[in-house]
From TrEMBL, chain A:
Record organism: Planosporangium flavigriseum
UniProt keyword annotation of Glycoprotein present: no
Domain Alcohol dehydrogenase-like N-terminal: 35-158
Entry keyword set: Metal-binding, Oxidoreductase, Zinc
Cofactor(s) needed for function: Zn(2+)
Annotated InterPro entries: ADH-like_C (IPR013149), ADH-like_N (IPR013154), ADH_Zn_CS (IPR002328), GroES-like_sf (IPR011032), NAD(P)-bd_dom_sf (IPR036291)
SUPFAM superfamilies: GroES-like (SSF50129), NAD(P)-binding Rossmann-fold domains (SSF51735)
UniProt keyword annotation of Magnesium present: no
Descriptive protein name: Glutathione-dependent formaldehyde dehydrogenase
Any one Gene Ontology molecular-function term assigned to this protein's record: zinc ion binding
From TrEMBL, chain B:
Protein name: Polyketide cyclase / dehydrase and lipid transport
InterPro entries: Polyketide_cyclase/dehydratase (IPR019587), START-like_dom_sf (IPR023393)
Classification via Pfam families: Polyketide_cyc2 (PF10604)
C-alpha cells in the first residue's frame, strides 16, 4: 500500500548511471502537496526519450532517479485539495505536468507550464526559459519520480489525470499518456491540407501514431522512414502507409521521386537526439559529440532537406542541447516553418481517447512486449537494440 | 479551461505590512544568519549583482510575469500570512504599526534572525518600497506591479539593494549568486502560489537513492554490440541507435 513513511517500499525501475538501469525497492511515494494523487500503476510504457536519459545524453540525471512517463493505473489516494478524482478511478495520466493556472496552461500549452518545474532556474540557464515538468525525467524537466514503479505520485492531479473507458485495455490506453498526444500534435503542427504528402522520420511508437494522425487529419499520402524492417512492416500493415528503409535507398531520391520533385508538404521528425550515424555528417556528429555537441540531428537535417518549399517540419523527437551543421540555408531559402515541442498532453489526451474509442486510432499493435516490472532492465535492452521485433515494451508493475 | 480554486482574493484590509518586503527581508535575513555562522569565511565568490557601489552595496533585479490582475497580486503581497507562507524561512511576523513590523526568520540549523522592516512607500496596486536598517544585512527593496500586455497578467519587478552593514557581514560574506538565487526563488514562489495554488515540491520524493537493498535486481545494458539469444538461441546484433 502506498503512502507515508510506514510503507514497506515499492518496486521501481531506477537509473543507475550511463547505460544502466535496475529494479530497486524504494520508499513509498506519498502526498507531498495538497493537489497530489497517488496512482497504483498497472501499465507503464518505455519511450524512446527514456533512452536519451539512460544513455546519459540529457544533463542532470542522478543515480536512483525513477524512469517512466507513459502510464495508466488506479487512483489509490488523493490530496486534500484534489477535486475531480476519487479513489478507485481507473485513469491514464498525461506525461507532462501542468499547474492549470498559469498563462500557458490557460492557453492550452501545457508542456510549457510555468510552475511545475521545481528546477526552473537550472533549465533557464540552459534554455532561457523553463518548460513544464515531465514524469521520470532529468531535473531539467522537473525531476519528478517516474511511473516505472508500483505506485507513483501525480502532482496537480486535477489537471492531467483522465478516467478511462472500461473497454479500453491498459496496453492500448497507455499510449494516450504521451505517444498518441505527441503524434497527434506533430500532425496538427503540419497544418495538413488537401492532397498533402507527409513524411515521417522514425517508425517507433510516436512515428506510427503521427503517421496515423496525419491520415486522420486528411493527408493524401504518408511515408514512414526507418531502418528496422519489422517497424516498417508494422506501419505498412497497420496503417497502410508507404515506407522507406533508409539503409536500402537514398531517402532524398525516393521522396523526390514519390512526390515528382515537389518534396513532402510536411515532414515529421520523430527520432530525436540519438539518431543513427550513417553517412558523413553522422560521423561528424559522433566526433563532435565528444567535444560539446550533444545531439545527432540526422533525421531533422534530412527532413529539412527533403521538405517542399514553403512546407512545415514538425520536430517532436527530443533534443536537449546544441546541434551543429544544421541546414539553416535550406530552412531559410525554402521558406520552411520549423515547429516543435513536448506534447501538450492535457490538450490532446481527451481527443486521442475519443479517437481510440471511435476506432480512428489504434495502438494495440504497438505493444510488442509486455512484462512485469521486475524484467525492466531486460525490457529496455530489447527496446534499445530493437531485438525480437521490439516496438514498445509495456511493464506491469502489479504483475 | 479551468482555473485552480481562487487563491485568497479577499485579503485586503487586515494586512498592514508589506509582505514582499518582509519576505525578501526574510531571505536576506537568512543570508545574514548564514554569513554570521560562517563568519570566518573569505571574500565574495562571485559578483552576480547588477550593480555594485563604492560602499560595497549590491543591487539585484529580477522580474516575473504573474497571470493574475495587478490588484490581486498587490493584495497578495500586502498580506503577510500569504507571503510568509509562500516564501518559507519566516518564523513569524509581529506588526508594530501600519508601516513597521518585526520579522523573525529561520537561519541555518536552529538559528533565528530578528529585524525590523519599514514600509517607506506604499502605492496600492503599483508599488511597495521597504527598508531594513537595523539588521545584520541592511537593505532596501522595491517591488512594482504593472499590467502585462495582452492579458498576460502582471509584470512584477523586484529590486533589492544590500548594504555592507555595521557588522561588515553582508559585504564580503554574502555570496552574490546565492543572494540572487534566493531573491529569484522568492519571486517564483509568489508566482506559483498565486497561479498554481501551491509550490510543488520534489525534495524528499521517492527515489532509488533511498533504496532498500533487499531486492535489487541489476542488469547492465551493454554499450557496444549486444548478443542476446531471444528466440531459439538466435544471436541478434545491433548498434546503439
Amino acid at each position: 500500500m502506498a503512502g507515508g513513511d510506514g510503507g514497506t517500499g515499492v518496486k521501481a525501475l531506477c537509473w543507475e548511471g550511463v547505460g544502466r538501469v535496475a529494479v530497486r525497492t524504494v520508499p513509498d511515494p506519498r502526498i507531498d502537496n495538497a493537489r497530489d494523487a497517488i496512482v497504483k500503476v498497472t501499465a507503464s510504457s518505455v519511450c524512446g526519450s527514456d533512452l536519451h536519459l539512460i544513455d546519459g545524453y540529457v544533463p542532470g540525471m542522478r543515480e536512483g532517479d525513477i524512469l517512466g512517463h507513459e502510464f495508466v493505473g488506479e487512483v489509490v489516494e488523493i490530496g486534500p485539495a484534489v477535486r475531480t478524482l476519487a479513489v478507485g478511478d481507473r485513469v491514464v495520466v498525461a506525461s507532462t505536468i501542468g499547474c492549470g493556472g498559469c498563462w500557458f496552461c490557460d492557453t492550452d500549452q501545457w508542456s510549457l507550464c510555468d510552475n511545475t518545474n521545481p528546477n526552473a532556474a537550472l533549465s533557464e540557464r540552459l534554455w532561457g526559459q523553463a518548460p513544464a515538468a515531465v514524469f521520470g525525467s532529468s531535473p531539467l524537466t522537473g525531476g519528478f519520480a517516474g511511473s516505472h514503479a508500483e505506485y507513483v505520485r501525480v502532482p496537480f492531479a486535477d489537471y492531467g489525470v483522465y478516467r478511462l473507458p472500461p473497454n479500453l485495455p491498459d496496453d492500448a490506453a497507455v499510449y494516450a499518456s504521451d505517444a498518441a498526444p505527441t503524434g497527434w500534435m506533430a500532425a496538427e503542427m503540419c497544418r495538413i491540407g488537401e492532397g498533402d504528402v507527409v513524411a515521417v522520420w522514425g517508425a517507433g511508437g510516436v512515428g506510427q501514431l503521427a503517421a496515423r494522425a496525419a491520415l486522420v487529419l486528411g493527408a493524401e499520402r504518408v511515408i514512414v522512414i526507418d531502418r528496422y524492417s519489422d517497424r516498417l512492416d508494422a506501419a505498412r500493415e497497420n496503417l497502410g502507409v508507404a515506407t522507406i528503409d533508409y539503409q536500402r535507398a537514398d531517402v532524398q531520391e525516393v521522396l523526390e521521386d514519390m512526390t515528382a520533385g515537389r518534396g513532402p508538404d510536411a515532414c515529421i521528425e520523430a527520432v530525436g537526439m540519438e539518431a543513427d550515424n550513417d553517412g558523413g555528417l553522422g560521423l561528424y556528429d559522433l566526433a563532435t559529440g565528444r567535444t560539446g555537441q550533444s545531439e545527432r540531428p540526422v533525421a531533422v537535417r534530412e527532413a529539412i532537406l527533403a521538405c517542399r518549399k514553403g512546407g512545415t517540419v514538425a520536430m517532436v523527437g527530443v533534443f536537449a542541447g546544441l546541434a551543429d551543421r544544421f541546414p539553416l540555408g535550406a530552412l531559410m531559402h525554402k521558406g520552411l516553418t520549423l515547429r516543435s515541442g513536448q506534447p501538450h498532453s492535457q490538450r490532446y489526451l481527451p481527443l486521442v481517447l475519443d479517437r481510440m474509442a471511435r476506432g480512428d486510432i489504434w495502438t494495440d499493435y504497438l505493444t510488442t512486449h509486455s512484462m512485469p516490472l521486475s524484467d525492466g532492465p531486460f525490457g529496455y535492452e530489447l527496446f534499445k537494440y530493437k531485438i525480437d521485433g521490439c516496438l514498445r515494451v509495456v511493464f506491469h508493475p502489479q504483475a | 479551461m479551468g482555473r485552480p480554486g481562487p487563491v485568497s482574493t479577499e485579503l485586503g484590509r487586515r494586512a498592514t505590512v508589506g509582505v514582499v518586503a518582509g519576505a525578501t527581508a526574510g531571505v536576506v535575513g537568512y543570508l545574514a544568519a548564514r554569513a554570521a555562522v560562517r563568519a570566518a569565511g573569505g571574500g565574495a565568490r562571485r559578483t552576480g549583482a547588477v550593480g555594485a557601489g563604492g560602499d560595497g552595496h549590491r543591487t539585484y533585479r529580477r522580474a516575473v510575469t504573474i497571470y493574475r490582475a495587478p490588484a490581486e497580486v498587490y493584495a497578495f503581497c500586502r498580506d503577510q500570512p500569504n507571503l510568509a507562507e509562500s516564501i518559507g524561512n519566516v518564523v513569524r511576523v509581529d506588526e508594530i504599526d501600519d508601516r513597521r513590523s518585526c520579522w523573525v526568520v529561520a537561519g541555518p540549523g536552529r538559528s533565528e534572525v530578528e529585524f525590523p522592516v519599514e514600509i517607506v512607500n506604499d502605492d496600492p496596486q503599483v508599488l511597495l518600497d521597504w527598508r531594513v536598517t537595523d539588521a545584520p544585512v541592511p537593505h532596501e527593496g522595491s517591488v512594482s506591479f504593472t499590467q502585462a500586455p495582452g492579458g498576460r497578467g502582471t509584470e512584477v519587478r523586484l529590486v533589492v539593494t544590500i548594504h555592507p552593514g555595521t557588522a561588515g557581514l553582508s559585504g564580503p560574506l554574502l555570496a552574490a549568486d546565492r543572494a540572487e538565487r534566493l531573491v529569484y526563488d522568492a519571486l517564483r514562489r509568489v508566482k506559483q502560489v498565486l497561479e498554481a495554488g501551491e509550490v510543488v515540491r520534489v525534495e524528499g520524493q521517492s527515489s532509488g537513492r533511498d533504496a532498500v537493498p533487499r531486492e535489487v535486481i541489476t542488469q547492465y545494458l551493454a554499450t557496444g554490440v549486444v548478443a542476446w539469444a531471444v528466440t531459439g538461441g538466435t544471436t541478434v546484433t545491433g548498434g546503439p541507435r
